[in-house]
Amino acid sequence: MSQDTRTPDTGGRRSARASRPARKRRRTGRIVLLTLLVLVLAAGGGLYWMYNSLDGNIKGVDIEKALGDDRPEKLPTSGQNLLVLGSDSRAGANGDLAGGDVGGSRSDTALVVHVPEGRTEAVAVSIPRDTLVTRPECSRRDGSAAPSAQRVMFNSVYAQFGPACVVKTVEAMSGVRLDHFLEIDFAGFKDLVDAIGGVTVDVKEPIDDKQSGLHLAAGEQRLDGTQSLAFVRTRHGVGDGSDLGRISLQQQFLTSLLSEVKKQDLLGSPAKSYKIASSATKALTTDSALASLTSLSEFGRSLNGVDPQNMETIMLPVAYDKKDPNRVVAAEPNASQLWKAIREDAEIPESAKKSPATGG
Questions:
Q1: pTM confidence score
Q2: Which of 73, 129, 237, 330 is surrounded by the fewest CB atoms within 10 Å?
Q3: pLDDT tens digits for 37-47?
Q4: CB 247 within 8 Å of CB 11
Q5: Cβ–Cβ under 8 Å, residues 122 and 305
Q6: What is d(CA 128, CA 30) in angstroms, rounded to the nearest whole number?
Q7: pLDDT tens digits for 294-318?
Q8: Phi, psi at residue 284, to the nearest 5°?
């Protein structure tokens, strides 16, 4: 997967709605890797003390000071809102994976996960990495201040300024107050899949992507960790070659990943849960409030009531940029409708789920 930023390198909620056939088909099995992690950790229940040896695996980042006080209001109806990032630094173990000769660090996957009060359902909004956004004032990695900038590619914010600035940018563009941030390293993602024993996906059309190293025939394919990583990275073999097609593959893979966990009853076996948790925690960076196994386990157990059948993944509505067709911008009023519904924990209008950019 190319990291050249000059080209598009892009990676019900209510019971009444649950009765709608189309809605049910959309939401069935949709899940994000965060949910897998917290469920794995929660599976130990009162035995989470067994995982104390994993505590040192979790890396924490104190982002509160960087965020400051100029943030969206925490509304009584806001539930829990998390920013989940998939990072692709190509450093260390990542450098041995396909495309490892490319320098720099990017956030290939970004999801805003909203868990309403009551925690029985959830929605995850994927933000295409080629989205042009207005970045607020942020601190550079050396501590110096960088003024706000317009028409900045979303994934470059992480590369230049780190996770705190990504949180600030998402809060500014959405008006959603984020409670936590979690980052999953892609090399660790590979190890997680290998620990599970692989994942089976249904490939709709043959994929031949030299840049990601992925070559798959159509039909059911059993993927190991390396192949799975290439599958969620690939863009050249699907859709119009942009991030929009890759997002759909990522959603499909995560659905298959959850199905594999269920089929193997990994969550019912403490030994298997430990193995998965070990791989997951090594791949994980969180905000400081979650940066311990105890805190993460408690948070995971608080999500036990979330039914995967009540989870939905939506792509932020985007349109092709008029000045640069290789980039996308938030489509209005669709995007504003989506963020408003999440802020107010309200039903998401169907119009807020539609994107004028159809490359995916």
A1: 0.76
A2: 73
A3: 554 544 444 34
A4: yes
A5: no
A6: 18
A7: 787 777 766 666 665 567 888 999 9
A8: -105, 135
